[in-house]
Structure prediction request, 254 residues.
Amino acid sequence: MDLTAPSAPSAAPDGADVATADRSALDVGRIEPDGQPVRQLTHLTGPREPGFAVVIQRSVLNSIHAHGKSDTSVEICGVIVGNLHHDRISPYILISAHIPGDKAASKQTQVTFTADTWNAIQVQMEKNYSGLKVVGWYHTHPGFGVFLSGMDLFIQDNFFNLPWQVAWVYDPIAGADGAFIWKSGKSERTEFLIEEDVALTPSPAEGELAAVPRSSLRTVLTIIVAFMLVFLLTWFGLIWLTNHGARVRLPIEW
Prediction:
């Protein structure tokens, strides 16, 4: 399947007029939380505002950046993978993985999802991401900013047109990212949140301690070792003084 728009993309492949079709259902504000997994967001880089949110995990964002910087002479693309959740505030999309479009045909200002691209993505989804969804796509605009071109809008309109699917644009030269969501049938840019990757062990309620940062563990161990050294030096110092005639009362008698 070739997702590159034709030279004059005024209509969708099935002949329906994209501009005049009823697209009112394409709006993140109409996504209901019922039926979505409950997941409370933690370790966010910014405040969780009311309304639908786009959240990407730090490791995924770093990986997309690395992919985008691998060749800044052409546009690079892929799909973003994750799930739709909701917390105490509203539904949100969590981007927890991505699949590079390695078999895509790329040009300086254009990218093409081919049939081979989709086949490779499907294999990766079945092999590594069962239970997750393709929640959108990403591509780079090396050196010319964060926006959706006419061709980008054609792709979004016709192939990523579920209310919760997102378009992600990254300019690897400017170092800028942008997320685009569906609002009233149109793709609009929105703020996004980054969730820091924090590995957690089972909670204390499950009989184990929660994960503690390594720096904190090192600090605790250093304090314990220092206390033991001071205690031992003091103890043996008192014993030495006692053995050499000094009248010292030991805090603990043997």
Notes: Confidence is low (pLDDT under 50) at residues 1-21, 200-211.
